Amino acid sequence: MAIPKALVLRTAGTNCDRETEYALTQAGFEAERIHVARLIENPAAIANFQFMVIPGGFSYGDDVAAGKILANQILHHLGDAVNEFISNDKLVLGICNGFQVMIKAGLLPWANVSPDQANRDATLAWNDCGKFEDRWIHLRCDSDKCVFLPKGEIIALPIAHGEGKFVPRDDAVMQRLLDGDQAALRYVDAEGNPGSYPVNPNGSIDDIAGICDPSGRLMGLMPHPERFIEVTHHPQWTRGNVQKADGMIMFQRAFEYLK
Amino acid sequence: MIYRVEIRSKNSFGDPHADMVHHQIGELGMESVIGVRSARLFFLIGQLTEVDAERIADELLTDPVIEEYSVGSSGQPEDAALIEVHLKAGVMDPVAASAVKAVTDMGLPIEGIRTARRYELLGDVNDEQKRKVAVKLLANAVIEDMYFEDHTPLEMSAHSYDFEVIEVPIRDLDDEALMKLSVDGDMFLNITEMKAIQDYFKSLGREARDVELEMIAQTWSEHCGHKTFRSDVVVRNNAGEIVEEIPNLLKNTVFGSTNELNKPWCLNVFEDNAGVIEFDETHAVCFKVETHNHPSAIEPYGGAATGIGGVVRDPMGTGLGASPVANTDVFCFGPTDMPLDDVPKGVLHPRRVMRRVVAGVRDYGNRMGIPTVNGAVYFDKRYLGNPLVYCGTIGMLPADKCTKRQPAPGDAIICVGGRTGRDGIHGATFSSGELTHEHETEFSHAVQIGNAITEKKVLDTIMQARDLDLYSSITDCGAGGLSSAVGEMGEQIGAEVHIDRVPLKYDGLTYSEIWISEAQERMVLAVPPENVERILKIFADEDVDATVIGTYGTENRKLRLFYDSTEVLELDMEFLHDGLPRPTKEAIYEKVDTPSPTPPQRDDYTQTLLNILASPNVASKEWIIRQYDHEVQGGSVIKPLVGVTEDGPGDAAVVRPVLESSKGVVISCGMNPHLGDLDPYQSALHAVDEALRNSIAVGGNLERTAILDNFCWGNCNKPDRMGTFVQAAKACYDAAMAYQTPFVSGKDSLNNEFQTDTGETIAIPSTLLISAMSVVDDAAKCVTADAKEAGNSMFLLGETSGKLGGSHYLLVEGLETGNDVPEVDPTANRKLMLTLQKAIEDGIVRSCHDLSEGGLAAAAAEMAFSGGMGVELQLDNNTTASEQAQLFGEDAGRFLVEVTAENRDAFAEAVKDLPAAEIGKVTDTGQVVIRGDSGTLINTPIEAAKEAWQGTFDW
């Protein structure tokens, strides 16, 4: 079988692309980091890949709003290529800034990249605490259809962001997400129960840390799976109670799906 | 045409930024403000229609889910006091730059964008209060204008520049006139130096040109030349008798030890922008720590941000270019609880300085994608007018590219990265002078504003060019700008530069300003002619400015500068770099022993412990640490916060810079300005010991540890300051030799003094920061300080002398301290550290914490509450040290170690030749209990200890 190819999309201010590429290769992918300007020169190139990952960072410094300017480039220069890509049973994963980009480009929640509809139904707003925070949190995988996550499991991952508060436009949008089984990942405590700050570190509505599109093949999340692919990544590994690296699951499941 | 766009949160959603401003207004003690509304302002400039403006606002600038916009001004609110804060024209505005790019992507004709912030204060607010909020909280006059009505800027009109070579007569000046020239020109040079310059131009048979004087002043500045450290010193005692004469202080202290130790794994030391040591067969690791004190005093956010931005460029400009993998930051501030009205004129409140400095480091480091993993914060009222901001960067580079190559004659000089503006003009000379209360205005042009993303783009592209071997040499544009960078690179062969080719942020700069500007995010490369086209494409492909501005190599080592092909500068490299007269410095030092008074005996010291844990230097810095991304790049092994709830103190950070490798780099630091006041020699030994202690405590390898020195001192033209400086420098030599840890890089920042409007001069405490990096083979063998299991044994390693001079115990008890600082025995401590290091490598240490501020009691409490465990310890009853000294003494070279029952005997055997004792156990009671002969001296629940430790900076 051919080894699935993963595209790690980078641009000015992307800064988690190398460790994301490393995690992908650890999972079995053939991974390549490509600058958005190269794709804009040749949008067809995206068709050579089965998996597109938009990694974390501060694309264009998060100027104007997090992920907004890269999303704007995708909307105005790569719309057709990306819509074509996602209609072909391929996968897209947005991590942290990548999640912000997917929301603002319309890849999430409805898998529709078009300038006048993107970013209308949901957004990632400033954390309630008003500042950037780096901390480890627990998450519950809540979706049956999400390709990347095992429903029911509770995992630990680090977050590191200032704009990660998930906000749907209104209750109707929220209901549609729930009905579509798209609320894939929620902030919980170690026992799996919801809680206030810092259990929910940014004030996300309904504790949502990540969502998928109606197909379950496109996902965005604020936490960083690529930062927990070794036991020694966990802040408590020296206590001897960390058995597995939860972040690896997402890359492995993507690989299983595509291989 | 200009369109004004206002963007604000929908009422149904909160506005965290407005809330934070409201919170900080409360801290100013202004209850009358009952709420704050804020808005982001964009001014769109260009041939746009109303429809275009609406579309830009709707699709790009506004988040339609939570925000709403209006085009045009909402005017003066009826129910609130209005403050608008606008960036001054010409000040770097990254948001505006990105927005212009995005509007262009939308296919609309935009010429420029400006941004501003609008605040509406609700409640009963009078003009004076409004002004106070604006000045103290919202705007910094150095870079921003504030308006109390709605303001729309005029279209930017570029100033033109009429080129004219400016000649400065110098040959016939007398001493007085020479000094006037030095002062009026902000040259900060003394008469000997000015005379040397005069003689040089006499020998040339012509007068000087302005840019030539600027360049010499810069090259010879304290900041670039380190002339104090390189000078010969005469040391006298209080009676004025000469006790010692030291030629070239630096060479005979810090450098000296490195040369004598001559470690084969030291690959590139002191010569380059950062010190380089071996990591593995194919990689080398480098470390540089810089200070950015004066700019941070004036504009804390920009000063700190460019401090990080600047030090990140040092590794990038080391060897043939290193990639940054970790940052460190150490700050010294005035007391943050100081009443607003006690703050002297021309000084920002320490709380604001701290908030803004942290924000600056956070925003630049996080955006660059470099984890900030280690640091410290120290407080003293003498830092009020002169805060210290140390920033460090660790970088990785290929082993075969870790030394600098000389540019070859004919190599193109390529300037890469940020455009050049007036930012930071006179930064180098400025940081070499004393601050006065007028500096806030006088030197505002020395303030630099950074753009992290520009630097990230430069990094991304330079690494590609490095790996393709497209350039022969590289250096960063730091203090002194192009003048220093090209001057240093061309030192051996000369250089010719066409200054009018340098890309500018805006018109109107003189050739002189372009040459000495310290605009950020710039690197200079020497590129062989055949590679120029390829390298320019790499930069162009990722939208990075890169311009050929000249060539290296001239006849007889000259530096020539042209503007519109008219020569404006011609200097001999030899004079520039070797012409600086090396003065002899006067130093006075004599230690007169004054023992500390015996502190009162008590039967319970629990409250003392809590006070120490809550004292600013000891208290948790979680508020700062959480705002830094300390895990980006995926190499994090030991984090700055550890323990069962991930909020306990980490002694040192460990990162794996090469993801495929198990090898790690341990990063730690040590400093103690408080001891510096009492005994500068012992203080420096303590600083080195603490940096090494912290490293060893997590599993560092002493035999592969390199250290860095950063001296921040007062004005060393004053013999007493020079006296303590010499003591500390000598201690650095002795420590390096005894621990066998070579210095590989260092920097000094002198003249850290502040003159108040009442004419009083305040010098900072003599502050030596020691930073350490250690390479370990298996990062997975490292340990943390949090107590692990009930029943484990606790061992205390190291001698306790009984001396309390300079201890935090005396500090929090408000007791006078003598200068009886505990003496450090580096040789004994090295032996102990090597033994402990082996035990950790052998896996028989469950947890380990070093003893520092607050001594045994503080260390025990920190281990306990970090692990969610109790501890029960028994003090030694056959020692001369008092109970207070055993509890709180701050002797160096001591550790508290947790060992499991099964490894207890093995560990006891390992340390049998050391001062070591099993002093208690880890318990499951959740109580910190320490007993002496007279009974229980400390007994507190860990919750109380942790609360005290966390409460101080719970911002």
Tell me about this structure.
- The complex is a heterodimer of chains A (259) and B (955).
- Chain A is an alpha/beta fold and 259 residues long.
- Chain A has helices at residues 17-27, 36-41, 68-86, 97-105, 171-179, 248-258, and strands at residues 5-10, 30-35, 51-54, 91-95, 122-125, 133-141, 154-161, 165-168, 185-188, 208-212, 218-221.
- In chain A, the strands form two sheets. In chain A, strands 2-1-3-4-11-10-9-6-7 form a nine-stranded mixed β-sheet. In chain A, strands 5-8 form a two-stranded antiparallel ribbon.
- In chain A, 62% of the residues are buried.
- Chain B has 955 residues and is α+β, with helices and mostly antiparallel strands.
- Helix content of chain B is 33%, strand content 26%.
- The longest helix of chain B has 21 residues, at 719-739.
- The interface between A and B is large, with 62 and 67 residues.
